[in-house]
Amino acid sequence: MTRCGLEGAAPAKCVPSPRTETPLRNSEGIWASILLLRAQPDGGHRKFMIIRELVEAERGKVGAFLLALDERDRHWRFCRPMTDEAIRSYVERMRWDEIVVLGAFDHEANVIGLIELCDLGETAELAVAVAPEHRRAGVGRALMERGLLKSKVLGKERVSLSCMADNQPMRRLARRMGLSAKTDGGELASSLELDVPRSFHLMTDTTSDLIGTITYAGALYSRTWENILQRLLSTPWSIADESDDESLSTLETEWDA
Fold this sequence. Notes:
The chain is of the alpha+beta class. Helix content is 38%, strand content 21%. It has helices at residues 59-67, 71-78, 84-92, 139-153, 168-176, 199-234, 245-256, and strands spanning 36-38, 47-53, 99-105, 111-120, 123-130, 158-164, 180-184, 187-193.
């Protein structure tokens, strides 16, 4: 069972520092994301993905995302069955000064995936989950790349990831990211040794803070105005009829007074 999957366990001492993503190759040939834009068919629209670090005030976003997972996906994420109450307890006990949570957001600023980094001393344990409707679109890979960069910048020597043996999507992702795996009962344990962070990694991680904040704020702003416009357009407007005359006269009298 993973540390990140223990019910009520407080994942430990990663020091968070908000970040976000854009495809950017580092000198080792892996994608270090600052802001990620994915173009793919979706009713004629582009899919837009932001990856940034969540803060404690967004605990509710984490809970809502995990609660929306079905029974199988919860089992895959936590390596054990998880009831609604167990998930709520897990989220409530998360200590934000001891864990890093990176989220993938769509163009409407909705959470579509999460990766948690739990501190195991020299190792950062990763736990990933992606919303079913956003799988096979590069979300999991983008989160993993960001998680690896964050772990490296935090000075971790390696990362580890555990998943159920039947979780084929996660097993494929781990292989693509270079993690070596071994079977432990019904679980698969993967790990990857990390290089010492270079100035490039630190710069990328720092830059992502500003980009993530601005991009996410822009998505929220757009969503807010879109919602307001939709409400206005859906409101039935008509010229006041005779039944409104009395109300209008009363309003005019109060104004004149």
